[in-house]
Design brief:
Layout (H helix, E strand, L loop, with lengths): L7 E6 L1 H18 L5 E7 L3 H9 L5 E10 L10 E5 L9 E9 L3 H11 L5 E9 L13 E5 L5 E2 L15 E4 L6
Parallel strand pairs: 2-3, 2-5, 5-6, 6-7
Antiparallel strand pairs: 1-9, 3-4, 8-9
Helix pairs in contact: 1-2
The structure holds guanosine-5'-monophosphate (5GP).
């Protein structure tokens, strides 16, 4: 068990919880994509940690690639209007694409990206998200095929997720103390 960072109020998902979820997702994906041509695509930068763990939990051949996008606004709330800063290096036409996401909230960013990726004619296009804020009354614009766990409607950090570019390296997912924001 890691010592808790002094800015963190509560740990929602520990390193052990995360390892178990990633292992389960890797098994599901390995089973579903056996014999297929799987390409994992992560959106920089939040999904990098999850991508690193998930790809090692998958035991069929995988290719990986990354995209970087910038959404207009302050980053905490997504507008769904996205500019591609770094595009894919590989061609996904006819391949089985799985988008690897850190956290799915409104899903607006992802919806835009999926539309863009679908136009490149992959054989299939699905989403694996580590966290899903599928709070009651809130509907995501995208339906993920693989989910690590459901997440309460709080702003969370760690395991790749940042607040002002900090806390991405925490090995767990937690909620910051309110005074950190002030
Ligand atoms: P959506 O378009 O689904 O509303 O937002 C997705 C993006 O917003 C995520 O990829 C992430 O970058 C950011 N985001 C949403 N909720 C959180 C959160 O609780 N913590 C952090 N650090 N980022 C979040």
């Amino acid at each position: 068990m890691n010592a808790m960072h002094p800015d963190v109020e509560t740990v929602l998902f520990s390193e052990e919880d995360i390892a178990a979820m990633v292992k389960r997702m890797g098994e599901e994906i390995s089973r579903d994509y056996a014999g297929r041509d799987l390409v994992l695509i992560a959106v920089l930068r939040g999904a990098v940690v999850f991508m690193g763990d998930l790809m090692r939990a998958i035991d069929c051949p995988v290719a990986i690639d990354f995209m970087a996008v910038s959404s207009y606004g302050d980053g905490a709330k997504s507008s769904g209007i996205v500019r591609i800063i770094k595009d894919l290096d590989i061609d996904i036409k006819g391949r089985d694409v799985l988008i690897v996401e850190d956290i799915l909230d409104s899903g607006l960013t992802l919806k835009y990206l999926m539309k863009n990726l679908a136009s490149r004619k992959p054989a299939s296009l699905e989403v694996a998200t580590f966290l899903w804020k599928d709070v009651e009354g809130k509907q995501a614009a995208v339906n993920p095929k693989y989910v690590g766990t459901h997440c309460p409607d709080a702003f969370v950090v760690g395991y790749g997720l940042d607040y002002a570019e900090r806390y991405r390296n925490l090995p767990y997912v937690g909620v910051l103390k309110p005074e950190v924001y002030s």
